[in-house]
Amino acid sequence: MKSLKVGICGFGTVGGGTFNVLTNNAIEIARRAGCDITVTQVGARRDNSDCDTSNTSITRDIFEVARNPEIDVVVELIGGYDVAKELVMEAIKNGKHVVTANKALIAVHGEEIFAAAKKAGVSVGYEAGVAGGIPVIKAIREGLAANKINRVAGIINGTGNFILTEMRDKGRDFADVLQEAQDLGYAEADPTFDVEGIDAAHKLTILASIAYGIPLQFDNCFTEGIGKITRDDVEYAEELGYRIKHLGVSSRSAAGIDLRVHPTLIPESNMIAKVDGVMNAVAVNGDAVNDTLFCGPGAGAGPTASAVVADIIDIARGIKVEPLSYNTLDDVKVLTIDEIETCYYLRMQANDKAGVLANVASILSNKGINIEAIIQKEPATGESLVPVIMLTHKVQEKVMNQAISEIEALGDINGSVTRIRVEHLS
Ligand code: HSE
Q1: Is 159 in the pocket of ligand 1 (CB under 6 A)?
Q2: Whole-angstrom Cα distance, residue 192 to residue 207?
Q3: CA of 203 to the centre of ligand 1 (A)
Q4: Does position 325 have pLDDT exceeding 90, yes or no?
Q5: Among 166, 176, 312, 357, whose CB has the most other CB atoms within 10 angstroms?
Q6: pTM above 0.85, yes or no
Q7: Hey, CA dihedral for 161, 162, 167, 173, is it positive or negative?
């Protein structure tokens, strides 16, 4: 039985997890792969006390791994853009297959990396980059290959979902939960990537490219973070029968493809609304299969290692891990956020007097915006302002922006209008 030799670069949460899965499950993995898979070398700035590396060569120079003639597969788990890209290109140049969990690298530099890999005849696997342990890239590329994909949407950042869940269920503070997500190894090195939606945008960029066969275009992905979600919004949404989730949404229409990450109200009856904690869920709609949902842990050592090792096993089996699922790419227009159409949740503080609601309704009606539901709360004791909450039917974002400006200009509306997009995913 021949053996596949792996070099792991980066020995943090995911690097350590990958080492341990390959070591602990070596017999089961060999049975599946048809050969032994051994970690020949680890390149990292420091050791990982969770791993027994007594039989493994350790180097502080990750480029030594990329150039090591013994090694067949370089696993890039250092994260970031620049050094990671240099490492991956060096590995490819040296004829190594590459497996990475680095969605930022793929979303931004994927095209260049894939072109180099194609030329060198090596594989680049990045299943672990999207939705942690859920094999969603494989599902779209292989299991759903017969379909024209209409929509890919879901929770694709575990840290953000963990924060929103803990805030809603336990009333915990944002900063406190974020610290716990960091301690658990869920968050990115720069956690603003999680809370501002950048990490989810990297993942959505990759999913859309695989789903529709379009070039990777991270710069065209709209992102809005979860930092401004208030406890009141969470409660009002629930009163209206919705949950607030941080979603990545991409769908295809005659006008083009939308690519956006933002806090979103979804009906509580939707399965995604029930996905809590660090779990991710990706709903994929294909024209033949209709609606599918893939759910599982989206971050952490074990789940991410599970996806990394699956790509290594494919390489061992001789399955060429193709970077994209199409031989040719379509240059379909990606819509700007102004051009997308969706429903909206609006919250505003209004003076408690006759005619204020009528004025707001009249602005919406003049723009053809249909109100689906409305709640007006009683003023708190001693307060003259009342919260007014509305749900609207679908409208183009550009038109909603104009309506919001006009509402904010009304003398009886205090401060700015909170707007959260609403998706029914059906
Ligand atoms: N920081 C990411 C998350 C890790 O929380 O989803 C997995 O990509």
Answers
A1: yes
A2: 21
A3: 10
A4: no
A5: 312
A6: yes
A7: negative
